[in-house]
Amino acid sequence: MTTVVKVEEKLYVNRYLVDAGRPHIKVRPHETPSAALVALTHVCPAGCYTTNDRGQVEVAPDGCMECGTCRVLTADSGEVEWNYPRGGYGVLFKFG
Ligand code: SF4
């Protein structure tokens, strides 16, 4: 019998060391987000992007897996400032 494991359950085993006050990803100030920026609220595998009540996109990168999707999707618009976390911070993947 095959056991099906949900993606959320796999993500839950990862661990993160948050660099408090120094987010490695920032959304540049904007009035109206581009379609690419809005898309991040749906495609970020860690659910880091949300839309606030003014329709602007925000990021809380604490659970970021450093996949780079948001970096690639906003490369043309420049709406996201993306860096790797400082050494020792960020995601710690657990395999198995
Ligand atoms: S790098 Fe990947 S996981 Fe991290 S915020 Fe961007 S899309 Fe989400």
UniProtKB/TrEMBL annotation:
Keywords: Electron transport, Iron, Iron-sulfur, Metal-binding, Transport. InterPro entries: Fd_FixX (IPR012206). GO terms for molecular function: iron ion binding; iron-sulfur cluster binding. It comes from the Bacteria. Could be a 3Fe-4S cluster-containing protein. PANTHER family: FERREDOXIN-LIKE, FERREDOXIN-LIKE PROTEIN YDIT. This is Ferredoxin-like protein. It comes from Zavarzinia aquatilis.
